[in-house]
Protein 1
Amino acid sequence: MQQDILINWSPQETRVAVVETGAVQELHVERTLERGLVGNVYLGKVARVLPGMQSAFIDIGLERAAFLHVADLMSSVTARHADTTNGDAPPPVPIEKQVFEGQSLLVQVIKDPIGTKGARLSNQISIAGRLLVFLPQDQHIGVSQKIPLEQREALRARLQTLAEEGVGAGQTGGFILRTNGEDATEAELRDDIAYLRKTWARIKEASTRLPPKSLLHQDLNLLQRVLRDLVSEATQTIRIDSQEQFRLLQQFGQEFMPAAAQKLQLYKGERPIFDLFNIDGEVARALGRRVDLKSGGYLIIDQTEALTTIDVNTGGFVGARNFDDTIFKTNLEAAGAIARQLRLRNLGGIIIADFIDMLREEHQEAVLNEFRKELARDRVKTMVSGFSALGLVEMTRKRTRESLAHMLCEPCPVCEGKGSVKTARTVTYDILREILREARQFNPREFRIIASPHVIDVLLDEESQHLAGLSDFIGKPISLHSEAAMAQEQYDIVLL
C-alpha cells in the first residue's frame, strides 16, 4: 500500500499527516510551548545537598533548580538490582557521601516542573528508541511486562545475542524491548540498537566538551520522530514545506536513518501542503461525533472517560437487493471507516463497536475479518474479540499519546463537557424555587434576578403569570436584569 507523509511546519506548531491511498489516516501535532522536558539529558551542577531530605538541588540551567533524590542515583539503582539476587539489602549510602556542592553530574529529567516545584531528575540515563529503551550504564536485558510471559524468554535471548554483536561481553549496555517491538524483525532491532548507541556516544562526547548546566540531549521532536517511527517500506515520499527544517531533517536522517532520508522532498507548491488532500477538513470532521459513509450510512463516535463507543447506522442507504444485504454492506464499509477513525482520532483504551445486527453467521465472520484486516495496518497494538451475545465487538487499542480531541479541544465551559444544558424553563423553575427558599430565611426589600437573556425572556413571557403569583405570595417585588455574558444555566439572585 502506497503511503505519503506530509509535514506542515511553523515556529509555533508542527503537524504531520500520514496519507494512504489518497485519504489521511493519522495526524500528529506538536506545539512548541507545550513540549515538556521529560527525557532531556543535562550536565547538571550540584547547587545544594540536603542530608535531612536525602536529596540534592541540581542547577541544569532552568529558572528553578531541579530535584534529585538519593533513590534516583545510579548507585542506589544498582544496589536495588543486587538486592533482588542476594536477598540481603545493604543499607543505602547517604547522599552526602555520594555528591557534593559544585560537582558536575549527568542527569535526566523524569518529571516536568509543576507550579513552584522544579523538575525531578534521575542519575540513571535511559534513551528511548522506536522498539527499544537503551540503558547505557546497566547490563540488564529486559522485555516489556505487557508481552505474554511465554514469549519473553525467547525474545530476551534474541535481544541478548543482537546486543552482543560487535562489542565485547559485559560492554553491551542494557536494553529493554518495548511492547511494539514484539513482532519486530532482526534488521529493525539492529537498526534501533545502532541508533541508540550512536546517540549515547554523542551524549558522552558532549559531556566532555560542554560546560555544566548544558543540555546534552533532547528527546526527539516530532520531525525527527517521523523518520524514526513513521517511515516504513510502504512510504513513498516525505514532503515538508519548510526549507530550513528540510535541511536539518536531512542532516539528522543521513546520520541516523539514511534509508528514510532518501525519501525526503521539499514541497515548493503555492497551495498550503495540507490542502493537497483536504487534511484540515478531515481534522474538523474528526472532532465531530458523526462520520458519514459513502453509501449513505453513518457512524456516531462518543469518547468518554471509561471507553469509546461507536454506533453504526444505515442512514439513507437502501441500495442492496434486500434488507440483510443492506445491513451487511453498511457494516463492511463501517469496519474500514472505524479502523481509520481510530488511527485518525488516536483513540485508545477500551473501544466498543455496535455494528447493525446481522442474522447470518457468514456475514458476521466477513465483517470481523474485514475489521481485523483494516486494523492490521495500524502500527499501534490492537486486540479484537468476536461478536458478543449482544452483537457488540469489544476491542482495545494501546494508548500512545493524547487523543486528537483532547489535544485540540477542551471541555465546554457552559456544559462542562456533558454535551447538554438545562432548558431555559428548567432554569426558570430553579430560580423560582430559590427565591421561595430565600424569602423564608431573609426579609429583603426586593429580589433581583440576574440571568441570561433567554431565561429572562421566558420569565417575561411564558412564565410571567407564575412570577407574578410568586411575588404576591411572598409579598415582595421581583425585578429582572438580563446579563448577556451569563450562560443559560447561570443565574444570581440579589437581595436588595
Protein 2
Amino acid sequence: MDAAAAPGGQTGHLPAKRGGTAGGLGWTPPPAGLELLQAIYVVRHGERAPVRMRLLNADPPMPIRWNFCHTARRFDSAVLRVLEDRGDGEALVRGSLLPMVTSPRLHGLPPGYRLATSHAHIERAVEYAQEGPTSTPGDEGDCLLGELTDQGRLSLLQLGMRMRELYVDQLGLVPPVLRASDAPMLYFRCTNVNRTLQSLEQLVTGFTEGSDVAPRAPDAFVPRIFVRNAPEENMAPQPQSCPRLATLMQRFEKEAAQLYNPQLRKLDEDVCPHNNGMPPRVDGRPRLSGLVDSVRAAQAHGIPLPEPFNDHGVLDLMERAVVHEWFAGFRAQDPNERRQYRRLAFGDMLSSIYRRIEAKAAAPDADPLRLAVFLGHDATLVSMLHSIDCFNGRWPAFGAALSMELFRERSAGGTPPAAPKAPAPTKERDVLPEVPSGFCAYARVRCATDQQMYAAATATRRCASPPVPRLATTSRGTPSSARWRPSAARCMTGC
C-alpha cells in the first residue's frame, strides 16, 4: 500500500478506514428457486477534501493544506500530435503505432501530415496565491478543495473488488473474462465532477481487474463511463432548472432553521470558540451543512477535531438539522406535496432506474444489461433512499452504496413458471439492517408487490400537467413506466 502524507506534511500510512464501505456487501442468498438477473447500484463518491476551508481557528485547527492526494499528481493525458502520414492509417511515434484521427472541423495541416492520438505524461501541482508577482507552490500530494483523496480512491477500488468477488466469482452474473461484445452487460454512469469520475474509474478498475483480454486484441473490452451535460443531469435535485422545486426547497430550508436553530443554541458555548465566534445555525455563516461537511471529511482521514465535535450527541443534532434542511421535502406531511417534491427532485432518475428493471423483467434473456452503477453524491443516495422509503435518517458515508437486485423465479426444470399469481400488495420492504461502518442500508426491491416504492417514478423533472394521473400498473401489479407520458411543459410554479 502506498504511503500518504499525514496532516502537517508528515508521511505515514493511510489512516484506518472510517465510515466508508464495509468489509462485505451484506449480500444474502435469496429464497430457493430464484435466479439473479440484474443488479443496480447507487453509490456515493469516496472520501474527499472539504469543499471549503472551515474551522481554521479551532483548537486543534483544521489543517489549511490537506496532503492526501498523491495518486492524481502524475498521470497520462490524451493529446493530439501532428505526424507524417505513413499512408496506411497509422503513425509511428516513439516506437509505437498510433491510430490516425480524421475530423472535418480541423484544418490547417500541410499535405502529407495527419493527426494522431497519443498520451502525454503530465504532472500537476497545487499552487497557492499570494500578494505580489509570485505564487507559492504546494507540496507533492496537496489536495484541491473537494478533491478525491488517496483514501477515497482506495475505498472505491475495494468496493469494485468486492463487487467482482460477488457478481463474477461467486454468482457468475458477469463472465470472468470480458470482451468487446460483452459491453452491453455493464452500464457505468457518474456526474461530471472530478471526484465522481475518479471514484467511478477506481470502482470500474476494481471490478474489471483481470477481466479483459489482451489490450490490443480485436475483441478487447474497454469499459465505458457515461456522463451527462448539466441541463440533463438527474442524479441529484436540480432547483436551478425547476423554479417550483427551488421554491419548495427554500421553504423546507426555512422550516429547518425555525425547528432546529433553537435546539442548536445549547451548543453555542462549546462550538462558537472553534467557529470564529459564530454560533452553529442551519442558516448561519458558515452554514451548519458546511460545518458537518468539514467534520465528516476530517473524521474520514483521521484528522483530530475539537473536543465538541467528538461528542456523538453534538454531531447527531447537527446532522439531523442538516438532513431536515436538505431532504425534508421527501417526507413532507402533505401527501400531495410529498409526491410532487419526489417527482421534481428525483422522479426522473428513479424512473430511469425502474425502466431498466422493467425492461429486464419483461425480456430477461433479450435484455443484455446485468450490472449498472450510478455514482453520484450524498444527495443522490439520500434522494434514492427517500424515494423508496427506506432512509434511516443518517447522512450517508463516503463510498456508501445502495443495491437493487432483480430475480427470476424458475421451476424445478429450470424454465420460468407459467403466469405466476401476483402477490397481494404489501407495504413491507425486504430491507436488511444496516451493516457496520456506516454502509448504507441494503435494499432488495420487490417490484411486483410494492407500488408505492415507484410512485416517484411516474414523471420526470419536467412538470406533469395537473391533475397527476393515478399510478398505472401491469396485470401483475408492477408499475408500468411506459404508461407515463410527462408533458412538455416547463417546470414552473404552477406545476
Protein 3
Amino acid sequence: MAHIEKSMKKSILFSFLLLGSPIIWSQQKINYTSYDLANGLHVILHEEHATPIVAVSVLYHVGSKNENPNRTGFAHFFEHLLFEGSANIDRGEYSELVEKNGGTLNANTSQDRTYYYEVLPSNQLELGIWLESERMLHAKVDIKGIETQRSVVKEEKRQRVDNQPYGSFFTEMFKRVFTAHPYNWAPIGSMEHLDAAQEEDYVNFYKTFYVPSNATLSIAGDIEIEQTKKWIELYFGSIPKGQAINLYRDYVNLNDEDFLSRYSLEKSGFNQKNFLATTDPAANKMITYMSNQPCQIDRPSKDKTPLVGIIKDTIYDNIQLPALFMGFKMPAQTHPDTYALEFLNEVLSSGSSSRINKEIVEKRQLAQFAFSFNYGLEDAGIGIMAAIAPQDVALDTLLLAFDEQIVRIKSELISEEEFQKVRNKFENDIASSNASIAGIAENLADNHVYFGSADRVNTLLSNYLNVTREDIMRVANTYLTQDARVILYYLPKEK
C-alpha cells in the first residue's frame, strides 16, 4: 500500500507541476505597489524586510491552450528553452549566474500560463531583474537550443508520464472532458509535434507571447520600492512596446539581407546602443509605426460546452493494481461556486476522517488509496475522483461505492462537525500559505492576471468563510452529475 500511495502521489504531483496547481493565500494583509510601464508590462512590488531575500518573477499569460493544435507542447517547451541564455547570457550561464550568487530558480507551465522566478539574496535584486529582462527581450531561440531541449523534454515525458504508473490519467481525462476547448491536450504536449516544428515555428511563438503586454513582473521581499522601480525602468522600460519589440529582435538576429527583405529598410538606419532613439528618420518612422501595432493575442473563450452522457473507457497500462478515475465538468476558477467546491472535496477526501477514506478505504476496504479534488482553470474546471483498488475488487463495485457517497452528499447536509473541521483547515492553510516570499510574488501575479486584482490575496479567506453547508449541498447537486461524467478504468496490461 505504501508503495502504491507513494507512486500515485508522485504522479499527481508531477501532473500539478505540468498543469499548475491552485494556490491558497494568506489571511495576513499583504501590501503592494502596482503600476504599468509604457510598454504595457504590469509591475507588482511587495516590500518585506523580515528576511534578506527577494523573489523576482514574471508570469506570461500563455499556456498550452494558446498553442496551435498541430504544435502542442510549445508552452511547456519554452519553459525549458528560455533557460538557454540570451544575446548577453552565454548558453548554460543562466542557472550558473543565479546559483553562484546564492540563489535558486525554476519555472512551471499550466494550461493558462508560464511562470519563471528567481529567489536571490536581496543584494542581488538587480541581477534577477536583469535576467528576466534578458529572457523577455532577446532569449536564444535557435536550432541548437531547440535540439538540446527536445531531448530534455522527451526524457521528462518518458520518466514522468509514459513510465509513471497511472501517469497518463490527466491527459486521458482532459481530452474527454474538454472536447471543444484547447484544454483538450496536456501541457506536456506531443513529442511528434515538437519534432515536426521548424525553427521558425519556435521563433514565432516567442515573438507572439513573450512580449511586455502579455507579462506581469512581480517582485517580493527585502526591497526598497523606489530603487527597485529605477532598476525596472532601466532594464524593462527600454524594451520596445507593441510589435516594435519584434522589430528589435529581428534587428538583432537577422542578417542585413534578411532584415532589408522583411522591412525594406537598411539595418544601418538603426542604433544598436539605443534602438528607440535613432536619429534616422526612416528608422524612427518604422519604430513609431511598429510601436503602435498591438501584440494581438487571441485567447479561447470560456468553455461552456456541457458533458453529455456518460463517457466510459478502459485503459490498459503498465500497472499492477486496477484504478478508477472519474471526471466532472466544473466552472472556471473565477466562478463564485469554486469555494464551495473546495469545501466539498475537503469533506470527501481530506485526511483520514474524510468520507471517502473512512467508508471506501478503511471500512469497506474497496480501495488502497482514494482522493477527490477540484481543479479550476481560467476557462473551465474539472473535478476528479479516483482510487486504486486491490486485485480482488471489481472496479464496478468501487464505482458504486463512490456513487453512494455522491448521493449521500447531494441528499443531506454535511454535519456541523465536518463543516467546522473543514473551516478550521482552510483558516489554518490560508494563514500559513504565504510563508515564503516566492509564494507571495506568485500569488500577487496570479490574482492580477486571472482575477483582475492582486488584492484578492487579502480577501480570499472571507470567500471561504462565507460558504455554508447549504452551498456545499447545492454545488454537489449542480456539478456531481452522475449521468454526465467521464469514467476511466485503468487495468494492468496482459503479460
Protein 4
Amino acid sequence: MSFWEYAIIVVYSMAIVFIFFFAVSEVALMLNYLSYHRTYNKKNEIDSRFFEKEYPLVTIQLPVYNELYVMKPLLENIGKMDYPKDKLEIQVLDDSTDETFELIANKVGALQQDGFNIKHIHRVNRQGYKAGALSAGLAICEGDYVAIFDADFIPSQSFLMDSLIHFTQNKIGLVQTKWLHLNKNYNFLTRMQAFGLDAHFTVEQGGRNAAGHFINFNGTAGVWRKECINDAGGWESDTLTEDLDLSYRAQLKGWEFKYLEGVGSPAELPAAMNALKTQQYRWNKGAAECAVKNLDKVIKSKDVSNSTKVYAIFHLMNSFVFVCILLTGLLSGPLMYIKSIYFEFGYLFQLAAFFSLSFVFLAFFYWTSTAMNYENKTKGFLKFIGSFPIFLSVYMGLSLHNALAVFEGYAGKKSPFVRTPKFNLIKNDGVWKNNKYISRKINPLTYVELFLSLYFIAAIGIGVYLGDSGLMPFHLMLAFGFGVIAFFSVVHAKR
C-alpha cells in the first residue's frame, strides 16, 4: 500500500471519528436538556421582585447597515415596547451609506416627537463593523442593561419585562432569548433553516444552560449587563462572530449566562441562497476564529470544570464538522477503490459504521427538538421524518462553502463583516425579486458544487459496479445536497 493510500485511510478515519464524537456531544446536550425538563419545578421560577424598588435604566442598541427594507417595522415595533419611556434609551447605531440613513432620520425624529429618548448615531468609516458600532454606542450609553436587536428582528412588547426579571442575581451577565421565525414557511430554504435553528435554540442552548456549561450570545435578541461587557474587555472586532467571542471572554471571567427558551423573538430567515451563504460564511469562519482565539484560554483555565471544557471544545469547534463531512465525502470514492484491492484492510472500512451511528445520534437530537416544538406529536413526527434527511443533505451540500470559511478562520485570513441581506418577508407571500442588496453574480464555487454533485452520482455508480453499497446512502445525500445548493445558487441569482 502506497503512502497516499495510507494517508487517505488515516485522514478519512480521523474525520469519521470527529463526526462521531461531535454527534455524541449533541446527544449529551439532549440528555441534559431532557433531564432539566423532567426535574423542573417551582424553585426554578424567576424572582418577580426585580422591579420592586424601581425600573432600571435600559439601553436598546440597534446596529444597522444599509437596512432599507426592515428599518421601518423595526423602529415602529421598538416604539411599542412596554417599558417606562423615562427609563429607556434607544440607540440606532447606523453605519449606512445609502437612503437607509434618511429613512432612519425621519423615523427617529417621529419617535423623539412622541417623547422617546432615541439617538441616531451615524458613523461614516464603519471601523470594526458591527462590533465597532456596538462599542461606540456602549461608550456613551446611559443604561445599566443593554438590549441588542438586529434589524430584521421584531421583539415583543413585553420583551424587556420578560428578560430583565432574570437579572436578580448580580453574577448574571447576559439573558439570551429564543429566535422565532417570521417567514418559516416561505420556501424550501427557510423551512430547512428553521428546522436547524430550532434545534440550536431548543436542545443546544437549553442543554448547555441546564448543565451550567458555557452558552453564547446569539448576536441579537439578548440583554447584557453593561458591567459584564466592560469587565470582559468590551466588544472586539478581530473575529467575524463578535457575539461568540465576547460570550466566552465574559464567562471565563466568571459571569453566568441565562437562556430563556420560553421568551421568543421573531426574525426573518434568509430566503435566497446567496444570502444564506453569506450568513453561513460569517458564522462558520467567525466560529473558527473564536476557536483560535479562545480555545487555549478555556483549556488552561483553572476556574472551568473539565466537563464544561469538553463541551466548550465541541462548541467552539462545531464548524469543523463541515471540514470533516467534506473530507469523508471526497475520500469515500478512493476508499471504495482501495477496499476492492486490499481485502485484508476490510475491517478498517467498518469505520463507516461510526458515521451511521452518528446519523442515529443526530436523529435523536433533532427529534427531541421537533417534539418539544410541536404540541401535536403525530404532526411533529411527520414533520421530522420529512425534514431531517433533507436538512442533513442540504447542510452536507454546504460543506464545501463552509469548510473553506473554516480554513480561512483557522489560517487567520481576515475578511470584512458582510451583512446578511434582509428582505422584510414578514409574510410568507412576500417577494424579494427587486431587492437591491442581493448579489446577482454566480460565484465560481457554484460550479464546483455542481461538479461535486455529479462526482457523488458517479460514486453511486461505482459502488453498484463494485458491489459495494455500504456508502450509497451517504453518496445519495451528498449528491442531492450539492445539487440543491448549486441549483438554488443559480436560480436565485437570476431572479
